[in-house]
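Q: Please design a sequence for this.
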C-alpha cells in the first residue's frame, strides 16, 4: 500500500471500465508478492460455449463495427444503457475504452495490478490503520473509501451486458491481439480475470497489518501470499468483497462463462 494511487476493478472486472466491471477500484499498490498458486476457480462452462446450450437461442448477427481507433463513441452508447449512475457516465468519457479495459483485464488475469490502465478514478482519503492489543489492523473506516466505486459497479445492468459483449466482442479480440495474443479469444482472458477475483478469500476482521517503511504488509501469511490484484480486493473489506464477487458471478453467468 504505497501512497501512489492505483485503480482495480472487477470485473470487474471486471466490466469495471467497460461495464466492469469491473470495474474499478482505486487502491494503494504495494511491492509485487511472490507468485503462488491461486485457489481453485469455480466450475465453469467451456469458454465460447453456452453453459446450457439447449436453453439458449442462437445469437443475432453482429453489427458492423468501426476500427478500434474510432470505437469510443459506439462503446459509450452501449455503456450508457448499462447504468444510469452519474459517476459511471462521467468515468466512461476517457479515450480508448476498449484498449484500456482489455489491458486491465489481462493484468488481472495474470494477478497483476491494472493501475496503469485505469487511472481515471481517484480516492482522496488515505489508507488508515488503528492499534488493537499492541498490533496494527486496517481501520474499518478505510473500507468506506470504496463505497461509491462499489455502488457504481453494482448499478450495472447485467442483463444488458450480454448484447454489449456479443456485439463488441470482435473489438475486444482485436485489442487482445494488439497485446500479443494472436490466437486467444478475449472471452477466455475475461473469465481468467473473473475467476482470479472470485478465488480471493474473504478475510475475517480485524485484518492485521505490519508497517514496512512506507508500505504495509498483511500479517496473515496466506493473505500476504496472494497476488497484487487479490490483495487490492482484500483491502476493500469483507462486505465489499462479497458484493463485488456476487456481481462478478452475475456477469459471468450472463456471458455464459459460468454455470447458472
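A: Design:
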Amino acid at each position: 500500500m504505497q501512497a501512489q494511487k492505483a485503480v482495480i476493478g472487477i470485473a470487474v472486472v471486471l466490466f469495471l471500465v467497460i461495464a466492469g466491471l469491473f470495474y474499478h477500484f482505486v487502491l494503494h499498490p504495494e511491492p509485487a508478492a511472490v507468485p503462488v498458486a491461486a485457489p481453485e476457480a469455480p466450475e465453469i462452462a467451456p469458454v465460447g460455449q453456452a453453459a446450457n446450450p439447449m436453453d439458449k437461442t442462437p445469437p443475432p448477427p453482429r453489427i458492423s463495427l468501426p476500427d478500434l481507433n474510432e470505437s469510443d463513441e459506439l462503446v459509450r452508447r452501449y455503456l450508457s444503457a448499462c447504468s444510469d449512475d452519474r459517476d459511471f457516465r462521467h468515468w466512461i468519457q476517457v479515450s480508448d475504452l476498449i484498449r484500456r479495459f482489455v489491458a486491465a483485464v489481462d493484468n488481472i488475469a495474470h494477478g497483476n495490478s491494472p493501475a496503469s490502465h485505469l487511472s481515471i478514478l481517484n480516492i482522496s482519503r488515505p489508507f488508515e490503520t488503528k492499534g488493537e492489543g499492541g498490533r496494527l489492523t486496517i481501520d474499518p473506516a478505510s473500507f468506506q473509501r470504496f463505497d461509491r466505486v462499489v455502488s457504481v459497479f453494482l448499478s450495472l445492468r447485467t442483463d444488458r451486458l450480454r448484447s454489449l459483449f456479443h456485439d463488441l466482442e470482435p473489438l475486444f479480440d482485436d485489442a487482445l491481439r494488439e497485446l500479443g495474443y494472436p490466437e486467444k479469444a478475449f472471452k477466455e482472458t475475461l473469465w481468467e480475470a473473473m475467476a482470479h477475483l472470485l478465488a480471493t478469500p474473504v478475510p475475517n476482521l480485524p485484518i492485521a497489518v505490519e508497517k514496512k517503511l512506507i508500505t504495509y504488509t498483511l500479517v496473515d501469511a496466506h493473505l500476504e501470499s496472494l497476488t497484487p490484484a487479490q490483495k487490492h480486493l482484500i483491502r476493500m473489506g469483507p462486505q465489499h468483497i462479497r458484493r463485488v464477487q456476487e456481481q462478478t458471478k452475475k456477469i459471468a453467468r450472463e456471458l455464459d462463462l459460468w454455470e447458472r
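Q: Thanks. Anything notable?
A: The chain is about 40% helix and 10% strand. The radius of gyration is 18 Å.
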